[in-house]
């Protein structure tokens, strides 16, 4: 496994390796890897001859009061996980390599970025789509792998890829969870033991929504009210948002008469956690009459 920091060196290495590879898979990450990232890499390894992972803490997707400087970094630990997962090349550039001096080009997906994380973090998804477009242009993979935990990001990347005619298949991979249901995230490392216990309110709130839909509730405002009540019962948690959307277009829904997606974010202390689940009314489930 190679660790490469420059674009020129990476392109040279890819040119040589792609001559012997029919398919290439790419897993973009910000590092401090966990089992969720490993599942993406293993999926790429199963499906592709050549697997590339990037480890790059992208400064343009952090707001002015967010955690760019303290975002956890450990390239030695990350490289060992990549090696176990079967990655062939790690691309680990410095910010000046990706954002050249006086660069002024941005990629932005409109509409889908106006809700949920996009509404809470202005400019966040512009940073995400710009860096992913840059990485796609550098690596030019056949397939790129994204976790469903960042569901809004996944749908935005799919739309960008479609709209810009990028010849890349976006492969979604299911969320990997802890034993208590909390989605794996690099930011979980910020939680103190007490906060980690409090964070269990997130999977509970998601289950409350699923139970409501399973019991026949279709009014979105009623489902959201039940989520708010659940989170409010945990004094250490603050609900930032809960929104139920069309799973493809990200348009907010008023009723859940068809398949929908619940997106939610909570604060535990200063740590922001996001998660999502599908909501499928019995009438819309496969095999229903």
Structure notes:
- With 289 residues, this protein is α/β, with parallel strands linked by helices.
- The termini are far apart.
- It has a six-stranded parallel sheet with strand order 1-4-3-2-5-6, with helices on both faces. Strands 7-8-9 form a three-stranded antiparallel sheet.
- The chain folds into two domains: 2-173, 3-Layer(aba) Sandwich (Rossmann fold), CATH 3.40.50; 186-282, Pantoate-beta-alanine ligase, C-terminal domain (Pantoate--beta-alanine Ligase, Chain: A,domain 2).
- It has helices at 7-18, 35-47, 75-85, 95-98, 116-120, 124-139, 151-163, 193-198, 201-214, 220-232; strands spanning 2-4, 24-29, 50-55, 89-91, 143-147, 169-173, 237-245, 260-268, 271-279.
